[in-house]
Design goal:
By secondary structure, this protein is of the alpha/beta class. The chain is built from 19 helices and 20 strands.
Length: 503
């Protein structure tokens, strides 16, 4: 909503309040006064609702969800909307974005100097889509290692951290002050004392329980730490709606990590709630690390407000293996929803099989339609989702989509061994996406996310083997039994779905 429209709206509200106060000045008994107050609130609420419908160009499903909030909470609903619902693009909120894309430009210059490999890259629509809707190019010379679950991932991460000689760049949604978090922090302190440059970004909401004292020893050792979009007043700061959900680690510009795992004991299955945590991460070496570096440095320049000599963080490497990878980053300020486009295209291009693993299944209408069309086209579409939830309301909302998907032929499996948090899409055993973005509206429209799009059948096969093993710990949902469930279950899930655009 533009500033002029907001001024007009608030002027109308002020006029209504003045008129209302005139009527309230009359000598009235308590009952009459109460009714007049209710009428005034109702009229003001009508104007507020009109502002959402007429002045904002937004997704109709989000509009409906906010209208329900307005009806339930006439005045408080609009306060919530002001802070969490307004369709503000990030460039209107954030200041001092000079040089924000400079590292991307340096990467593009360096990438153009590389000799293209003798590789028959298939001319797929997804290649052309990603070329036009994302800044980062396909990178050809790479080593890729699939890391299944926390123990193998953190063993590899810790090994690379100990090998660092020049710099460590780390960006996570959640960093915990627990056994694993302290262990990694202490390694970073040790490396900082050895002269290694340490830069840490953590999300202001995801890591809101993290105290300043946790990183103080690292700062004293010379490390640099900043929160991404920190806020002083939880629930009253509109910036809390935009979260950095990325999990990126770059060591010396030669090794990079991304995927579903944050830093904390829960990701090793060390908590009472989840004694087994199923996740997928990637280790990259080669050209794709440059793209991860560019994403990190873009975020760092903004969050830290400090310039960087970007060029020195892109060292040469000797990787000769051709494994094409494209890093796809999306954010609420980007012109195109790159990962939303990626997911929709991956679903649409499947010809034989489409396997999706996601902890949260709240697709928008385009993704929902694409899934149903794929299944109706005789593609083997399988969704692997949690049977044991971490967020009950989100779980109920996810389940509200089961029936219509199964009616189209989609097979749905609920994972019961623990909590499944992996974000993986596999298409026809040839192409795969692994990253941080969930299959839900919030992640695809409001989050800062990063995925790796992999064009390699060997890696796709490894991910498919993981998927097959996971199915052994799942219960497949039966359509007939599902439709025979109690009405209360349907009501609970339907209600959660109405509010799902706000979750």
């Amino acid at each position: 909503m533009s500033r002029k429209k907001l001024i007009l709206l608030y002027t109308l509200i002020a006029v209504l309040i003045v008129i209302g106060s005139y009527f309230l000045n009359a000598q009235l008994d308590p009952l009459q006064l109460s009714w007049r107050i209710i009428v005034i609130i109702f009229v003001i609420n009508i104007f507020l609702i009109a502002s959402v419908i007429l002045l904002e160009k937004r997704n109709p499903y989000k509009t409906i969800a906010w209208l329900l909030v307005f009806i339930a909470f006439p005045i408080g609903g609009y306060v919530l909307y002001t802070f969490f619902g307004r369709n503000m693009r990030k460039e209107r909120i954030l200041k001092n974005l000079k040089d924000y894309n400079r590292c991307y430009e340096i990467l593009a210059t360096y990438r153009s100097a590389l000799k293209s490999p003798d590789f028959d890259m298939p001319d797929l629509r997804i290649n052309r889509l990603m070329k036009n809707s994302t800044t980062l190019p396909i990178q050809f010379y790479n080593n890729i290692k699939v890391l299944t679950n926390g123990p193998s991932t953190f063993r590899e991460i810790i090994k690379e951290l100990r090998k660092a000689r020049d710099h460590i760049h780390m960006e996570y949604y959640i960093i915990r002050d627990d056994k694993l978090g302290v262990h990694i922090r202490n390694i970073l302190i040790e490396k900082a004392r050895q002269g290694v440059e340490i830069r840490i970004l953590y999300d202001g909401v995801g890591s809101m329980q993290l105290t300043q004292s946790f990183f103080q020893p690292l700062r004293e050792a010379g490390g640099q730490v900043h929160a991404f979009l920190p806020f002083k007043f939880p629930f009253l700061d509109y910036r809390s709606n935009y979260r950095n959900h990325r999990k990126i680690l770059i060591v010396d510009g030669r090794a990079g990590f991304l995927g579903g795992l944050n830093i904390g004991d829960e990701y090793l299955g060390r908590t009472k709630a989840f004694q087994f945590w199923r996740d997928t991460h990637l280790k990259l070496e080669g050209d794709a690390v440059y793209s991860l570096q560019a994403v990190f440095m873009q975020d760092w320049i903004f969050a830290a407000g400090k310039d960087l000599d970007c060029g020195r963080y892109f060292p040469r490497h000797d990787i000769k293996m051709v494994k094409p990878v494209q890093i796809v980053a999306s954010s609420p300020d980007s012109r195109w929803n790159s990962i939303q486009n990626l997911y929709t295209q991956l679903v649409s291009m499947a010809e034989k099989k489409l396997y999706i693993t996601t902890p949260y299944l709240i697709p928008d209408e385009s993704l929902l339609t694409a899934l149903k069309l794929a299944a109706l086209s005789d593609v083997d579409v399988r969704l692997l989702v949690p049977g044991i939830p971490d967020k009950k309301i989100v779980h109920w909302a996810s389940r509200s989509y089961y029936e219509e998907l199964m009616e189209a032929g989609v097979r749905i499996y609920e994972y019961t061994r623990g909590f499944i948090h992996a974000k993986v899409i596999q298409v026809d055993g040839k192409i795969a996406s692994v990253g941080t973005a969930n299959f839900d509206i919030r992640s695809l429209h409001l989050g800062y996310e990063v995925n790796a799009l992999i064009f390699d059948e060997q890696i796709a096969k490894i991910l498919e083997e993981d998927f097959s093993r996971d199915l052994k710990h799942c219960i497949e949902i039966d359509l007939k039994k599902w439709t025979d469930r109690p009405l209360t279950e349907n009501l609970k899930e339907s209600t959660a779905r109405l509010f799902s655009p706000l979750l």
